[in-house]
Amino acid sequence: MKKLIGIGFKPIKQGPMTLVESANVTQTHGVEQDFFGRPGKRQITVMSKDQWQLVCAELDSPLPWTTRRANLLIEGHCFCAADQGKLLRIGKLTLEITGETDPCKKMEIAHAGLEAALTPDWRGGVTCRVLNDAIINKGDLVQLLS
């Protein structure tokens, strides 16, 4: 079963992640209060717990998922190129997967080797566009739709 297990946002550029149990997600602001939530292909980032665990094992370091600075953490699915263009339903929220989240130099600053560990097989997660406004909660079921 796929489900949402983490919700976070950055209220200021390069600031720390704020974790919440629920969030209002809108087409105009992404995860409410997120600095980067403006409309576009990279409005929200979603990461797989399963893939994050691979990264941590490769680095031999149990890093918190917020090190990646993604907005949402799901379990039960590993992202791949075939997911691009599909819809991701989280509770009543629908997101369009627009592409892979490419790891940047900030990941290397966060932890040595992290950028390289995130690079293969879409381990860095996916970028998404918000298709409708909805409130999401940790524990919401997640569906991948064609």
UniProtKB/TrEMBL annotation:
One of its GO terms (molecular function) is catalytic activity. Pfam families: MOSC (PF03473). InterPro entries: MoCF_Sase_C (IPR005302), MOSC_domain (IPR052716), Pyrv_Knase-like_insert_dom_sf (IPR011037). Residues 17-145 form the MOSC domain. This is MOSC domain-containing protein.
